[in-house]
Amino acid sequence: MNGWSSLIRAQICSRLPGAAATGWRCSRGYYKSRTRKPTLYSEVSPLGDPGRSVAPALDGWLRSGNTVRFAELQRIIRDFRRRKRFSHALEVSEWTQKNGVFVFSPVEHAVQLDLIGRVHGLVSAEKYFENLMDHDKTYKTYGALLSCYVRRHQVEKSLSHLQKMREKGFDLTALTYNNMMCLFTKIGQHDKVPDVLTEMKENKVLPDNFSYRICMNSYGERSDIKGMEELLREMETQPHIAVDWNTYAVAANFYIKAGLAKKALDALKRSEERLTGKDGTGFNQLISLHTSLGNKTEILRLWDLEKNACKRCINKDYINILKSLVKLGELEEAEKVLTEWESSGNCYDFGIPDTVIAAYSEKGLHEKAETLLENLKEKGKETTPDSWARVAAGYWHNGDVEKAVKSMKLALSLPVTKKRWKPDPKLVATILNWLGDNGSVADVEAFAGFLSIVPVNREIHDALLKAGSRESKM
Description:
It comes from Eucalyptus globulus. It is found in: Mitochondrion. PPR repeats lie at residues 138-172, 173-207. It holds the Pfam family PPR_2. The structure is a single chain. By secondary structure, this protein is mostly helical. Among the domains are: 277-346, no CATH class; 348-358 and 365-418, no CATH class; 424-474, no CATH class. It is 68% helix and 0% strand. The chain has helices spanning 3-14, 40-44, 55-63, 70-82, 86-98, 106-120, 122-130, 139-151, 155-167, 174-186, 193-202, 209-221, 225-237, 245-257, 261-273, 280-292, 296-310, 315-327, 331-342, 351-362, 366-378, 385-397, 401-413, 425-438, 441-448, 457-473. Helix 15 packs antiparallel against helix 16, helix 18 packs antiparallel against helix 19 and helix 20 (351-362) runs parallel beside helix 22.
């Protein structure tokens, strides 16, 4: 599955009832006070480390004599959820409940239940639900628990829980049916999704944009372009539906996969016509789709439109356009975008220059990759071991062993930021073998000093023996 399909799948299956308050569109900014006075939000928002508790900041705010408004706590929880800071959102929710700031209604219980499921898992969510008072076990809390089951792909529990909701006499809404369509999408049973939509209509529940979009996705995943088109035409005739850019983008994606470039371009045109305001997410997805079609001109045109519309592009926008340009082999254009990012004032993210560095390495431009890494290092910016290791491998394959050794030393001297990253044992062994044949004992020892994360004791021993033997003969 390509990157775009994964993104569609992630969008479709992440918008569950527990997260419904965040809406479909992603926010590009966060709540800020209009005054210079510190706010509770300004105290807790910078605490981005998931392992760092926000409770001390909340307690400190009260000790300083400040008041706490429930509406502000709700806004903080909503913002944290949108930013996927679920542990912090749960902590604020639990702090609110513990300190008696507000008596929880079923709505607040539903939010907390959803967060418990995300942070602590199903067992904890089920326990929380069971401990609720009967008057709090409403459609909202039942729906939140269903969301937890769907998110964990629990088919039997989801179906059983849905039956309980029916037996309770709850009026099922589009949200509930969407949840079940998400479940079948997650487990790959795309043929069952249209049946849920049919049941929805039979029960006089109006499908919303998301209902149609996920059903369109089910047809597309089964390569049923005709079924997808029929559903799109039906959607366009519904008076309560305003077909948005995302719907046509979904259609364009499957047209591209089916090799129907002309229909894809038409869908992309319709999608672009429906972009409004500072919708960087929409521009990014259209750029990605045009990349799949190889449309460099359209990519650059949309990038200019995005910059004008959003005024200030964020880092993920730069990563998206750089990946598109690199994919098409447009390295000169990528270099221009990288220069724009450097002067943008955005916070440093190595993933942005590394997109270009990786492209240089793939094209055999190891000197350019090294130069970019050196420039970052000189500016005190973070680089990563794997980026230097790519350069080392490139130099080695080109026969420039000295530069390969230098780059690998730098790679091994840096802290490992990717948990699973380890240097290629074959490359390390090859370098050790070369040092044994051509270097001194001191050279071998210096390189071996960097090898704590690589099990090459035998290779080090052999290299030291060869280097020592050669030195003794000399």
